[in-house]
Amino acid sequence: MIRRLASGRVRQALQTGLTLVELLVSLVIISLITIAALALYTTSAGTYRTTDANQALQDNARFIFELFSQATRQAGLQDTYQYAQLQTGLAPSYNWDVARFTPVPPSLLGHRALFGYNNAKAVASPSAGTDYSADDNSGTTNNNSDVFGVRYFGSSRQTDITTGDGSVINCQGTPVPYPLTASDIGLSLFTVGTGSTGEPELQCIVQGNPQVRPLVGGVETLQIVYAVDTDTGATADNSPNRWLNAAQVSTAALWPKVRMIRVGMVLRGAPGSAETQATALYPLGEEFSKISGSPSTETGMVFTPPNDGRLRRAFAFNIAVRNNLE
Hints:
The chain is α+β, with helices and mostly antiparallel strands. Helices cover 21% and strands 26% of the residues. One of its GO terms (biological process) is type IV pilus assembly.
């Protein structure tokens, strides 16, 4: 557009708007900024999911540690005080009707105070005559997880022998009373199974109730080995000198000689919680996957995770046996 000024000079008007090239360059720049923002958001969201899942796995691992610590400390627990009261004239003063039952002597626990099964699943309800109906090397559907159980005496209220006073609880959190008969001795049994949602989970079974109760979800495998004092006679020093799995302990009848347990597990998070996928996990620690520098033949020492986008972590801890099992 041509304009004529008052002075008579001619000046071309300033151009308004954008050329096609400038518009395309602007669109490219905006697109790059948008893509960068989306990439940053996606990365941040993935990091958040991983961090959140990692925290949840750590919390679950701590809870499982508390469960096993409590159970292991209770193994072989014997309330000799209450038994002594039942044998004396003091029992009626506590409103305990001794005539209703036969007191269980503390020595009844024996080798059943602590026990386990290797690569197994719990398959039947507990009874007084057996530790639990399960078999070594029979549980292949739960990633060769192990079964662990403890027996112990409960503690009753002074006003009612049939009601626990809360000082001794089972793995379901229920108070356990002093046993009226041998079949009432407290039991906490841990196993890995599939929950109602299809997720693997740590489960609990207690005395008198064969129904499994879920404790912690996302437990893909549970591995347990036992530190045993294999010394005998004058050389026995109550110090563990060998790690054995449950089948090896059973074969050698060494359950009363267990001094410590090592619990290992693999926990998994929700789908999409992993940024990278591990190729192998060692529930008990990599050092337990080898014997004298050679790979161990023990099934379950190495866990190969599927590539399904879930965050997985291995946790392991040692727990000393507090009570005398012999």
